[in-house]
């Protein structure tokens, strides 16, 4: 359990199992600490992110939050080893567990979208599938030169509906369809050209500093006005998108029951090509 944040503007550091939380005056940084799994979204990491956001929501001194990762990958998406574990359960228990996993992830994205303070994603390395969705759930994305963005669930026999919905909301259905159906990745420069980044990509050693610059700039407005503006963008304009997230979670869970999902997950874990891949 994360320690309680105290109302102090001074630097304080808190640690969770897969997430580090650091506050420094009006800025806070949440750092995904799961490099050995490339930042994959295990149930524990999802819970840590929920908890970290809840703590920062309550801290009146924090005005903006940066989301980063300690590894060479920003976030590799769903933890396919967890999905494989669910597939090993008795058949009558599997669907409930898949629905629970995707429901919690959908709720995490919605928590990001409803979070009242600016969220800046500092993306270094790949942001894959659900990891891409996490970045899209933030208000601003800063990326390093080596960042890539992909929505390749179909390549594993899965349905990345949450990522597709967020990508459609942020950049339009044309890009969402192209990325979701092919699984092809965007380079950082291509993501910037598509309007997903707030500025051209930077060198990896400048990533956090650049994210801090944007976070600081986002504290210049009135907190009440910023919260109302975020609500207008993500909840009023994005009302349909929020509805789509819940439906997409259900579709993604159902897709996990298919034979192709099992084949895709097993192929990935065995570092092999799935049987349907056109070579």
UniProtKB/TrEMBL annotation:
<dbReference type="Pfam" id="PF00378">
    <property type="entry name" value="ECH_1"/>
</dbReference>
<protein>
    <submittedName>
        <fullName>Enoyl-CoA hydratase/isomerase</fullName>
    </submittedName>
</protein>
<dbReference type="GO" id="GO:0016853">
    <property type="term" value="F:isomerase activity"/>
</dbReference>
<dbReference type="InterPro" id="IPR001753">
    <property type="entry name" value="Enoyl-CoA_hydra/iso"/>
</dbReference>
<dbReference type="InterPro" id="IPR029045">
    <property type="entry name" value="ClpP/crotonase-like_dom_sf"/>
</dbReference>
<comment type="similarity">
    <text>Belongs to the enoyl-CoA hydratase/isomerase family.</text>
</comment>
<dbReference type="InterPro" id="IPR014748">
    <property type="entry name" value="Enoyl-CoA_hydra_C"/>
</dbReference>
<keyword id="KW-0413">Isomerase</keyword>
